[in-house]
Each structure stands twice: as structure tokens, then as C-alpha cells.
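Table S7 (text form). Paired inputs.
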Amino acid sequence: MATVSTFFRLLLLISFVPALVPQDTVFDVELVHRDSPKSPLYNSSMTPFDRLQAAAVRSVNRASYLDTSMDIDLGLLNNDGEFMMRFSIGTPNQQYVWGLVDTGSSLSWVNCVGCQCFNNSATLFNHSASISYKKLSCISNECRSFSQGRCNDDQMCKYTIAYGDGSNINGIFSSETFSLTSLDTKQSTFIPNMLFGCNFWSLITKVNDPGSIIGLGPRPQSLINQLAPKYISKYFSHCLDMPDTGVNSRLFLGRSKKTVIGKTTVTPLMTQDGFYAVQLNAISIPDEFDILITKKSRLRAGNIIFDSGTYMTMLDTQVVDQLVRALTDYVRLPTVENNYYKLCFTVLSTDQEEMLPGMWFSFQGTLGNFMVSPENLFRWNRQHEKCMMIVGTNGIQIFGNIMQRDVLVGLDLDKMELTIIEKKCIEL
């Protein structure tokens, strides 16, 4: 009977012929901010002030857990990401899942039916209903190349991942057919044999379990490294926008043949412990101040992590103190004390708002200068109060996603270059 069942499953699998993925494909995927009404994590009772405070707290938490992960091989807190994407998994019936996109994680995972998932609010993936789902053996090449893969009693590839806040997940390393839908054409492309984690235990201690993570980190199991070079070039880019603008944020997997024109920053890209890093040399306003970044970093490569999952920018405490003094002298506006932010100004009019400057971030390389706009450097905290989106840290420095808003950030994993093109998301 089991033989007959297997035969019919194979027959169904053969008869289900999804669109093949052509080489040099570019996947253009919509990203949804967690605070957007489109997001499954959206909380309609939160005010804009609440959301900004929550983003600040997530940034500090994530930076703290990142420091911990550098010390004792823990993962990042897996629900502190900012942007999500919707994708489908399984055949012949597609099961849709929302995943937090994270350049600081490499393993993509989904909570599966049968999971003891605490605080779970997401739909579980019914792996038993998919004819293309496959558990991986612990003696498979895929498991052997997965540093966290271990044998369970059934000789399947089991993983356990601990997070810095005490959260943890475990499950079976598996393969499945994923489907990504193009933002422009609305067409879906099916990608077979994608490796992912099927969670059967998920203890998330802080907030509701998001149900899935899409890992874009530099390690072999990440989505980008599974797609490249078989289907796409080893390159991805994103343009992030605020949830209240009505403009779509986008993730491009692969390099488009279309040339994007705009002022371009280029700097060497480095990797360490599953993160992407660059070298930041100085922060300045020409003819006003030039603050050098000289303190020795805990990173072996570069001194600041470029991260899609952290909202705020985190800089060394001494650097932030210098910035506060320099900007307080430069900006002729009253300052406001705030428990969350190091520097806030009272802003009563459009003319006063225009007094807030942008700043140059000078990264390594002759094309390494990038201007962070005033809109990305200062955000409204409450009525008549704008605050600097940089906070101090004694740990790892992070270039947060607020300063990556409305520009095209590209990571070339062949040339090992990071590019920033000043091009608005609505123009892509």
C-alpha cells in the first residue's frame, strides 16, 4: 500500500510542471514593513509615536543580541526584523507564508504543522500536504555542510538554534519548492529543492512569533546563495521606504540588465560571523566638523555592519557624544531631553525643519562618500520634536535601515562590493 501511495505521489509530482527558472533571472519581490497595514504583525492600536519607540527598542535589543552572537555563536533575535516578504511553499497547492527578511541570518525557516510554537500568530506550513516536501537525512551532503545539523533518532538532519534573548527553535532541515511573485508582472516563479528549516519547536520569548524567516546572510544556506549562480547572479539589492508613504519597498534577487542612474557610493564589502560589514572612516559636515572613526572594532573585517533588520544606526558611544556636541553647536534650534534618543530638537515650522542637516558618511574607497539625508537622519518623535536616529553602543556598530531609506542598496557577492545609488524607490 505504501508503494502505491509513493507511486501516486511521484506521478503527481511529475505531472506538476511549474514554470522553469531561466538563467539570469531577477526576482523583484515586494517588501512590506512590519508596521504597514499589509503586514500580519500590524497593530492598529499603536500610534506613530508608539511605533517609533518600539523600533528604537528593537534596535537596541538586536544590537545586544548581535554582540552576544559574536561571542558564543548564538543567532540574532529572530522577531526583531523590520521588513517582510510573502512567498509560497509546497506543491501542488501553494501555501502562502510571511517571512521576516534578514541579512543577519542565513537559515530560512518556517513553523510547520505539529510545531509546539509558543506565541505563534502565523499560519503553519502543512508539510504533509505537499508532494515536493523532503526531510534531509543527517548523512546527506546538505546536512554535512550545515554547521548546526545533527542526527536525530530517525537519522534525519535536526537543528537547534538558540537566540540571544533565550528564545530557541528546532526542527528538521528540509527541501521544498518555493514560489516568488514579481511585484511588477504578478507572475509566480517556482524554484525546486530549496533548503530550509521546518520548525517543530519554537519558543519566542518577546512578542508574537512571526512564523518564518528569510535569511539573506553570507553563509551557504541563505536564499541568495541557494539561488546563485544556478538561477541568478550573486547579487541582491533593496530599496526600502516608510510604511506611511504608499510607495512599495522592493527586494531584487539577481542583477538587472537595466542600468540604474544616480550618484553612486561604492565600498568594499566584507563578511564575518554571518554578517555583512564595511569600513566607516569618518562622519562630517564639510567646513563644520569631521569626526574620525578610530576606535578598534571587535569585527575582524570592517568596523560597521550593514543590516536590513535594525532600524536605528548604532555607533560607538564616544563617536555619538562627539556628534551630539558638534550638531548642537551647528543647529541653531533648542534641544529637548529624551530618554530614548541622544539628541532631539524643537521644530516649530518648515523653515526650522530645513535647518536640520544631512551628514556625510565616508566609507573606505575613493567612491566611498555617502550623504545621509536630513529626512533619514532626523525623524519626528512627537509633534514639534525631531530626533537623531543614531544611538550609542559599546559593542558592534550597525548602519541601520532608517539611513538606507529611499536609496538602492546593492550587495555584490562576487566582486565583494556594496553600492548605494541615490534613486528613489518610486522611480525603480
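Next pair, protein 2 of 2.
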Amino acid sequence: MGVLTMRVAVLLLLGVVEGRGPCFFNRTQEHCVCHNLSQKSIGSAIQCLAASVVEFWGGELERYTAQPITDLEDAPTVLGSLIIKKIIFGNLLVPEVLLARVLRFFSYTHVEELVFKSCVFQGRGNWAGMAGQGLPILSLQFHNVTSAPLLGREEEFSSLGTWLETLQELAVTQSRVTGLPCGIGRLFKALHSLDLAGNSLGDESLLPTFCQGAFPQLQVLSLQHNELTSYPGVCQSLRLLPELQHLDLSQNKLLTDPSSSSSSCQWPQTLRIFNLSDVGLDEVLRPLPPHLEVLDLSRNHLRAVDISLSFLRKLFLSQNLLEAAPSLGNCPRLDTLHLENNSIAELPWEEVKLLGVLREVALDGNPYSCSCSGAGGLQALAATGHLGQGWPQDYRCHLPPGYQGWQVKDVPVSGLRCHSVAVIVPITVVLVLLGLAGALCLLRSRPGLLQPCWRG
């Protein structure tokens, strides 16, 4: 499809081909989509020349493989005049040899983002022509693609080094990737975001992928929904990423290794955001990165949480099995806490006081018992204005039966009634003690028994 984007763009602007066919241009959004372009209908792509985003879906790229592609005299001027910033190729069979020959034409454009979706890369191309060639592309994305294995192709792709060392974002998702060769990782010297979600990365493939010198500037890494199981192993594999700030390990099935000493694993000191949601946890994994500011432990099986993180600001614990809010004493900077859809029935007054100092609290979807501490505690917390957007519609009573289904805010609990136990119990105790004292005095006042309690 590169030939459709480069060579044909020049021909269209020169008026060589007429513009009719299966391309649709949204002028307001500067977005053009073409479906199943063929040699006969390629002229309709002329309307895409005014777009900033262009999509090509389907087509017959393999027919152009044998055609020679040479530098077009007007290519730099014409392609440089286009405003296209993003190109998406989808549902295509992409001959790698054709891609290797066309890619250098991107150097004349302003394209910053290149995306391949549901494509099959066929064969192996000769990338020698790209040696020393820089490209304006800063973001490269592959989603649900198939290609020849990368192992053993480090020398081939080294010809792309001038471009790849300036790339900032790379995504290879849902593409059955089992690992990246160490030598290829070392080409990405400026990459700050790497998304490898939905692949087949296992514990044994992480260490060579993130070897010494690979991805030295990486800040954001997603390993979501792979085949990782060893928490200490992941920690050991990623320890050589000196700039890592955001790590997503969600939707793996992580386990602790009893034979591995927790002190042997040291996460990068720069790590600030950690996603451990939906990884099957029954307890919090140790050790946690010491300087975390955001921790997501939602969608696990946690019944208790006891963590000590001095810099933690946001903690997400929704969809667990918690019956009470966690202790917050060891997280002095916490300002956001999410506890939606747990098993919390009541909020004791001490917890209300602790949660009330936070900037944002979310507790909706719990099976509340609308007793005094249940409804009264939530109403008091809501009065602080810090409950999340779910208040009041998503806070409902499960017990007692008379209030089942009620919104907690509608339960008629007054402050006096909520504290009635605290008032009645001491008074009752005092009355009982006075009664006992009086009875003892009466016994003492009987002749021949005890001396009176007091004398006149």
C-alpha cells in the first residue's frame, strides 16, 4: 500500500489519474478512508490528499511487488506539500520486499504515525536501502499482524537503525509475539513507550528481550494479557530499565516463588505507576516498588490489604473480597481510594474519620447494611463531598429487609440516633452501678449485719 500512498499521490496531484471510487473523505475531520483499492479504482484516492489521517483497508498490494520503483523527480516537493500525519493500513497482505522499497519515500512526508492492523507480512525484504535513512515517523503500531520470526534478523534490521533510534512509541499487540531479540531492542535508543499487550510472552523470554542496553529510555511498558506467571522473574527481567515509570502487568496470572528471596528482586527506582489488576492475587505480592504513586490491585481475590508505601497517592482495590477498608496509616500521602464492588457492609466511625481526609473515595456497589454505622457512616462521608461519581445512585442497602434496595442517602438516620449507643451504654452502666451501691448500703444498714454506708 506504500506505492498507493507515495507514487500514486504524486501522479494524482499531477492530474495523471482521475479521482473516482471507494474512498470517502470527511472534510470536517480531515479523515479519509479507502476500501479495497484496485488498479482501476485507485484514482479515487485523490480526495485523500487534503486529509491529515488516511486509512487504506483491503486491496491488492502483491500485484505491485514486481513493478520497479525509482525516485520520482517531483516526489520531495509533492509529498512534502501533503498534510498527512497518520496512515493506517488494514486487512492487507503486505509483501515485505515491497515495504522495504517504499518505506524510504516516507522521508519526504510529514507522516508521524504509521499503523498496521490485521495485516500479514509476507516474505523477507532487503532493508539495505534504508541504511542511514531517517524518517519523520515517531509512532509505529502493529495490531493483530503476522510476520516471519524476528529471531536471527538483527543484522537485517540494523539498516533501519538511523530511523529506529529516533522512534518514540512502538506497539505490537495481539500478534502472538513470544519475544524480541536483544539486538533489535538495542536499536530503539529513544523509545519511551512500548506496548506488547495480548501476546505470548512467557517468563523465560523477558530476560533476553530486556537485556543490557535494550530500550534505555523506556518509560511506559505494557505487558498486559501475556503468559507471565513469576512475579520475581518479571522483576528480575525488568531491573535493567533505568527510566521505567509506568508498568502494566494486568491480566497475567502472577504467583510468588517461595524459593525466591524477596530481597533479591529490586524494581527500578523510577517506577511510579504499577498495574496489577486481574492477576489472580489472594494476597499482595512482595516486594512492591518503593516509590509507587499509583497502585492498581483491582479485580483480584484480596480479603485484606496491608501495605506501606510512603509516596502512594492513588490506590485501586475495586472488585476484590474486602470486608473492611484497608489501614491507611502507612500511606501518609494517599488522596484517592477506590473500593467499589467489594464485601464491605458497614463503615465504623473510625474508618469514616480516616477516609474523610482523602480527596476522592469510591465505595459504590458494596452490600451495605443500613444500620447506624452503615448508613450513617456513608452519609457522613458523603457530607465531606469526597465520594466519587457513584453517590448516591450506586450506594444501596442490602440489609435490613425493610431498607433493601433503598439508596443509602434516603435511610432516616440522624446523628443522635447514630450515636445513641455511645450515649445510652455509659448512662446504663452508671445507673446499674448506682443501683448496686444503693443495695449494698441498705444491706449494711440492717442491725447485726454490716455497718451503715454513712453516718449522720
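The chain is about 20% helix and 15% strand.
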